[in-house]
Write a structure and sequence with these properties.
single chain, 450 residues, alpha+beta, 2 domains, four-stranded mixed beta sheet, three-stranded antiparallel beta sheet, flat
Length: 450
């Protein structure tokens, strides 16, 4: 019952996609309904094939890439729609619009339905999935057919005055896909987008200061560094991500709002002119409904991304100490800790006035790794472990378990160690130095810009 409830966001998104696409292209209602149902089935089948033949993060990365590509494609469509709404409308030859619709309608319907089917199938890839691959696929095929039929009949009952612009149709589809993916932590897009904005701002400011002012310039006082430090905070990434997240939908709404009204100068009767203009204004207002609803859906996706309904494994760090030779020893088994269980095990080493947090875990490749509980980019808030990934608590970036132990990006900083039959041996000086060089300096920049 709980698992069925978890599947509801994906099913709701697919149902909404079917209704939006059919209303956006009402003249092709029946073939599009068939395309939507078939696309959902194909997407679910392809996803199950990927999960079966490519274990690990590859299927999730592929599906997330497709959803992300649809969002940035919509960015271009939104800019074009705003341009076309002005008096400088792009040239459009006679009949060209209908020819484009004949191609765009099935492409949007199939692409959206395939992606929605793949997103729904992702719910059956976790450890809590109650069904095997074949029963789960059959269940999704039946549900997809029923939802496509329900969307067809619901759309037919909607008021004829409720019209959707071409850009609004694509916007509604993209918003529903992003909302659906936000309920799956490994497919979420808003948190990675915010992280990219934060990192891009960080790299730009760093390069600018290095190449133009140099860090220790006499005129760069501590107060100025305090203001520069704001640019290194995660709030910059969050609000920058919000701008990128909502802007295309706002552009579509603005484009609809400023659509040119029909020319009525050639009509002599004033009542007929007013009636024609009033009908055009009502139609324009109805076209705003889907873009505005898309903004609400995108707000929901951003909220789900910022407050995911996921409990991460985050054990309390176990205090350890170095022996007189400086060696830190972590036994393979001790008490409730078993390094071969695939879980993240945290430890705390006190070196003088410093405290070093690190963890040891067995990766899916079967190798042990020792890493700092921090990365070289973000404030050292640490990591938690979820299904198939660890998450950076500062920027909410997900790191696949297969890549833990590899340097770069937001990955935990790896530390050199030696593996022996009795456990893991780490040089205490190496740990302290790694923490000092990669964490304390980064944390200082994030807090105060110094």
């Amino acid at each position: 019952m709980m698992f069925a409830a978890k599947l509801l966001p994906q099913l709701f998104a697919f149902f909404g996609i079917a209704a939006v696409v059919l209303r956006g292209y009402p003249e092709r209602r029946r073939p599009l309904a068939v395309s939507v149902g078939a696309g959902f089935a194909v997407g679910a089948a392809v996803a199950f094939f990927l999960f079966r033949n490519f274990p690990g993060s590859f299927p999730f990365e592929l599906i997330r890439t497709v959803v992300g590509a649809s969002f940035f494609l919509f960015w271009g469509i939104a800019v074009t729609a705003l341009y076309r709404s002005s008096e400088r409308a792009l040239p459009d030859a006679s009949g060209r619009s209908s020819r484009l619709d004949a191609v765009a309608a099935p492409v949007i319907a199939l692409g959206a339905a395939v992606t929605a089917g793949a997103l729904a199938a992702c719910r059956f890839s976790g450890n809590d999935a109650p069904l095997g691959p074949v029963p789960a696929l059959v269940l999704l095929l039946v549900i997809g057919a029923l939802l496509a039929a329900a969307g067809f009949f619901l759309e037919a009952k909607l008021p004829e005055a409720l019209t959707v612009s071409r850009a609004g149709t694509l916007g509604g589809v993209v918003a529903l896909l992003l909302l659906s993916s936000s309920y799956l932590v490994r497919l979420d897009l808003f948190s990675p987008l915010s992280m990219k904005v934060m990192k891009g701002c960080h790299d730009f400011v760093h390069q600018f200061m290095e190449s133009v002012l140099i860090p220790d310039h006499l005129f760069v006082r501590p107060q100025i560094w305090g203001y520069i430090g704001i640019l290194f905070s995660k709030e910059v990434g969050f609000w920058g991500g919000m701008v990128i997240w909502f802007t295309p939908f706002l552009l579509v709404a603005i484009a609809v709002r400023f659509e040119l009204l029909p020319s009525v100068g050639h009509i002599r009767q004033g009542a007929q002119r007013r009636k024609l203009l009033a009908a055009a204004i009502r139609q324009r207002r109805m076209k705003l409904i889907v873009p505005l609803l898309s903004l609400v859906l995108m707000a929901g996706a951003a909220y789900r991304s910022s407050f995911p309904d996921v409990e991460y494994w985050d054990p309390k760090p176990i205090p350890v100490a170095a022996d007189p030779s400086g060696d830190v020893f972590i036994p393979r088994k001790g008490g409730e800790v078993d390094l071969s269980d695939g879980k993240l095990h945290k430890y705390l080493l006190k070196g003088g006035a410093r405290e070093v947090r690190f963890f040891v875990m067995l990766t899916p490749t079967g190798k042990l790794t020792v890493d700092l509980d921090a990365c070289a980019i973000c404030k050292p808030d640490g990591y938690g472990q979820g299904e198939g990934s660890v998450i950076c608590y500062y920027c909410k970036t997900l790191i696949p378990l297969e890549t833990v132990g590899k340097p770069g990006g937001c990955n935990p900083v790896p530390v050199a160690f030696s593996e022996k039959p009795d456990g893991v041996h780490i040089n205490g000086v190496t740990l302290v130095n790694a923490w000092s060089t990669t964490v304390q300096s980064t944390g200082a920049k994030k807090e105060g810009g110094k």
